[in-house]
Automatic annotation (TrEMBL):
Subunit structure: F-type ATPases have 2 components, CF(1) - the catalytic core - and CF(0) - the membrane proton channel. CF(1) has five subunits: alpha(3), beta(3), gamma(1), delta(1), epsilon(1). CF(0) has three main subunits: a, b and c.
Bilayer topology annotation: Peripheral membrane protein
Origin superkingdom: Bacteria
Ranges in a coiled coil: 82-109
Protein source organism: Haloferula sargassicola
Name of this chain's protein: ATP synthase epsilon chain
Gene3D superfamilies registered for this protein in UniProt: ATP synthase delta/epsilon subunit, C-terminal domain, F0F1 ATP synthase delta/epsilon subunit, N-terminal
Cell compartment(s), UniProt: Cell membrane
Chain ranges of the ATP synthase F1 complex delta/epsilon subunit N-terminal domain: 3-81
Chief localisation class: membrane
Phylogenetic classification of the source organism: Bacteria, Pseudomonadati, Verrucomicrobiota, Verrucomicrobiia, Verrucomicrobiales
Gene name linked to the record: atpC
């Protein structure tokens, strides 16, 4: 018996298949999931998601979201899931720079929702850049 993983973004189902293990970027730290894991629901932060399928390790940059874990299935709902080949390093750097500049120009009384949005853009850009650069070296 194996573990079934589904990774879903608002645009599409990114992956659905059998895996032997999954590493998720939980808000309280990285979580390793194996078959038979206790049921849980956890928030995810932007970072790296890794899974092993058919002896091959696959790594993705993911955004914020949630993971629902049962003993035989993991559902990942996230606002971004990109493999290394899908990441445009220049675009990610530009998005991060724009968000940092906008954040730096905001006043103390500005909208907290806008601040959170900009911080999310920065976190997702960093996740993409970290994945791209680690695999380049």
């Amino acid at each position: 018996m194996s573990l079934h993983l589904e990774i879903v973004t608002p645009e599409k189902k990114v992956f659905s298949g059998a895996v032997s293990n999954v590493l998720l970027p939980g808000t309280d730290g990285e979580m390793g999931i194996l078959e038979g894991h206790a049921a849980l629901v956890s928030a995810l932060k932007p970072g790296e998601l890794r899974y092993e399928s058919e002896g091959k390790i696959v790594t993705m940059a993911v955004g914020s979201g949630f993971a629902e874990v049962t003993q035989e299935k993991i559902n990942v709902l996230t606002d971004m899931a990109l493999g290394e080949e899908q990441i445009d390093e220049a675009k990610a750097e530009e998005a991060m720079k724009r968000a940092e500049e906008q954040l730096a120009n905001m006043g103390h009384n500005d909208d907290a929702e806008e601040v959170a949005h900009l911080q999310g853009i920065i976190a997702k850009s960093l996740a993409q850049l970290h994945l791209k650069r680690r695999h380049r070296n």
